[in-house]
C-alpha cells in the first residue's frame, strides 16, 4: 500500500473500526499499528499467512463500505481542511497585529483550534 | 419525545441512517420528516400500529448503539461547539476592527466558517 492508502485505511479504522469483528480488529492493529508481518500475525493466531491476508482484505473492504454508505471520514476531512484554512488566516492576522487586545483574542482562537480533536 | 431527544435522533439518523434496513429508514422518514402518525404509517405498509412503533424503537436503539460504538455524533458536536466559539470571537474582533485589510481577512474567515457542512 502507498502512504496515502495507509493513511486512509488508518483514518477509516479510526472511524469505523468498532464495527469490525474482534478478530478483524486484532489483526488490523497488529499489522497497521504494531507493524508485525503477515507471518508473525499468522504465528500469533495459529492460522495461515493467507488467512491473515484474507482477514485484512475483508476488514479493509468492510471499512470502505461503511465509508461509501456514511461518508463521515470525507465530511471530517472537509471540516479539517476548512479549519486549516482558518488557522492560516489567523496566523496571517497575528503576524501583522500590533494591538495587544486583538493579539490576545487571536491567541484565544488559536487555542480553540488547537483543542479540536482532529 | 422531547425536543432535545428528537433533535438527537435526527442527528443520529443523519450520521448512521444508511446502516439501518430499508424498512426502518422508510418508517423513520415518514415519522420524523413527513410527520405522519403511527396509524398513517401502519396503513401505508399494511401493518399494525404496534408494528410501526416497534420498528421505530428498534431503529432508534440501533442508531444509539452505533453512536455508543463510534461516538462520531459526539465528536462532531464538539467540533461544532468549537467552531461556534471561534465564530463568536471573530465577530468580536470584527466589531472592534477599524483596519480595512484586517476587516477583509475577518470576512474571509467568516466565509470559511459559513461554508462548513455542519
Q: What is the CATH topology descriptor of the largest domain in chain A? A: Arc Repressor Mutant, subunit A
Architecture of the largest domain in chain A, according to CATH? Answer: Orthogonal Bundle
Rg of chain A, rounded, reads: 20 Å
Please estimate the helix content of chain A: over 70%
> Helical element count of chain A?
6
Separation of termini of chain A? 24 Å
Query: CATH homologous superfamily of the largest domain in chain A?
Result: Winged helix-like DNA-binding domain superfamily/Winged helix DNA-binding domain
State the domain count of chain A.
2
- Proportion of β residues of chain A? under 5%
Characterise this structure.
- The structure is a homodimer of 118-residue chains.
- With 118 residues, chain A is an all-alpha fold.
- Chain A folds into 2 domains: 3-70, Winged helix-like DNA-binding domain superfamily/Winged helix DNA-binding domain (Arc Repressor Mutant, subunit A, Orthogonal Bundle); 75-115.
- Helix content of chain A is 82%, strand content 0%.
- Chain A contains 6 helices and no strands.
- Chain A starts with a helix and ends with a helix.
- The model of chain A has no long low-confidence stretch (mean pLDDT 92).
Amino acid at each position: 500500500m502507498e502512504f496515502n492508502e495507509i493513511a486512509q485505511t488508518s483514518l477509516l479504522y479510526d472511524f469505523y473500526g468498532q464495527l469490525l469483528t474482534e478478530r478483524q480488529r486484532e489483526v488490523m492493529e497488529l499489522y497497521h499499528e504494531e507493524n508485525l508481518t503477515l507471518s508473525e500475525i499468522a504465528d500469533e493466531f495459529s492460522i495461515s499467512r493467507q488467512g491473515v491476508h484474507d482477514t485484512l482484505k475483508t476488514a479493509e473492504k468492510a471499512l470502505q463500505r461503511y465509508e461509501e454508505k456514511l461518508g463521515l471520514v470525507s465530511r471530517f476531512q472537509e471540516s479539517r481542511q476548512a479549519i486549516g484554512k482558518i488557522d492560516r488566516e489567523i496566523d496571517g492576522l497575528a503576524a501583522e497585529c500590533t494591538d495587544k487586545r486583538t493579539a490576545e483574542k487571536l491567541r484565544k482562537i488559536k487555542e480553540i483550534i488547537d483543542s479540536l480533536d482532529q
